[in-house]
Amino acid sequence: MKKLIAVMLIIVLTLSLAACGGKKKVEETKGENADSKEKSGTIEEKVEDKDELEPVTLKFTYPGSHQQDEEKVEEAINEYLKDKINASIDIEPIDWSAFEEKTSLMMATGDNLDMIFTASWMTYYTDVAKKAYVPLNDLIEKYAPKTKELLNPALFEGPKVDGVIYGLSTNKETAGATGLFFRKDLVEKYKFDISKIKSIDDFETVLEPMLETIKKNEPGIYPYYSNGYNSLVSFYQPLSIGGGDTPGYYNPDSGKIEYTQESEEKVLLYDLAYKWANMGYINEDAVTAEEWVPNMFCTWMPYKPGKDAEMSAQLGVELVGEVIGDPYTTTCEVTGSMIAISRNSKNPERCMMFLELLNTDKYLNNLLNYGIEDVHYLKVKDNVIDFPEGVTASTSNYYPSSQWMFQNQFLNYLRVGEAEDKWEQYDAFNKSAVVSPLLGFAFDATPVKSEIAACKNIREEFEKALVSGVLDPAVAVPEYLEKLKANGSEKIVAEKQRQIDAFKAKNK
């Protein structure tokens, strides 16, 4: 590195004034903070010609399991990368149960680590506060221009903290919505028109008669299947703030943080859950159930194009889905899958070069996702693949099943059975979404972390039982709200309102 810098200093001294002006422009790029300004000088001094780049190895970790042929795939990736950016990748998946603890320790102790999967629902904001990640604004500008041009601008806006990007979001669905999913054979058998279910206002008038029909005529089939929080009441709340564990959502009509448990939609759904449970439409083990089952007629899931095909393959029965309400693009959605560059990395520039390729190079993207052609998968059509004969997802020697983590999903091959226009559907879905007025806002829970912990315990006490129809909402909801307030929920709501008001004032 010292030799490289010495060479570059000689080059810089011989550059024209125009090049000096270019450097000044980079150093003055908007969105820099003190840390990113410090990085910009290093970025400007890097050699862009791959033939002059020293070979480096980049460690990349994500939550998942080790694949039997991981080393074979690494070898193929590294052979390809040598001619691209003269880098090698060391893939290190860490089991989900240990991922956050292990990576936190690795970053704190200075262990070798370059790229790391992160998300807003994991420790992204906590790690940003710890300065665990490298600022990416300048790195993206210089080393990922095609990615910046290609991706939805919301993917760069959502991860910002004080104007600085610390995670590069995955290009997948940039919106979230509620979906109801049905057994296709039963929909066809009884000629149900599920397209008439447009919003939760149609649940009682349109959906309920369907559940009654199934209850009367299909013994052994759950009319509505609930598994705890993935339940009837888990309707998509696009403007929740700070996650479901914290009281208060943003009402755009009033501009205020209000209690979710008092919203018109939530009260309606609590009541329906209680009614349907007493009519025998909901499975009795809803509070403790964890997985979906094939012998269900209807259930709730987060909606995205192709979700029905994914779940059909998982359950072994064909499902059809119907989106309920409008999809929303929120900070939560666009920060749900990101790759950050660790502060421990000695080669952040090369990391960004790799991420640029992962977002723009179809061969590399699918090599990481699916392995080696004719070894781990077979091409059925130009963009459609299948497992070799006798191999399944669970028996494959290489199938991380982490496509949603590895950057640009629009480059992914399609599996047999998936709609061949899947990515066109994704694009249309993303474009149809309502953009949240709070896009880019991230709630800092630090001032009320003890109150949030206390309220989380109260939520555990009431929420699952309410959404599963076990508790009478007329009795339980007032008690629920009283306990929340007794444990600091009003302080949480006030803090959320303060931060949102400051965000709106700053972004007028």
From TrEMBL:
The keyword ATP-binding does not apply. Residues 437-505 form the DUF3502 domain. Keywords: Signal. Residues 26-50 are annotated as: Disordered. It comes from the Bacteria. Residues 26-49 have a biased composition (Basic and acidic residues). Residues 1-18 form the signal peptide. InterPro entries: Bact_solute-bd_prot1, DUF3502, SBP. The keyword Signal applies. PANTHER family: ABC TRANSPORTER SOLUTE BINDING PROTEIN-SUGAR TRANSPORT, ARABINOSE-BINDING PROTEIN-RELATED. This is ABC transporter substrate-binding protein.
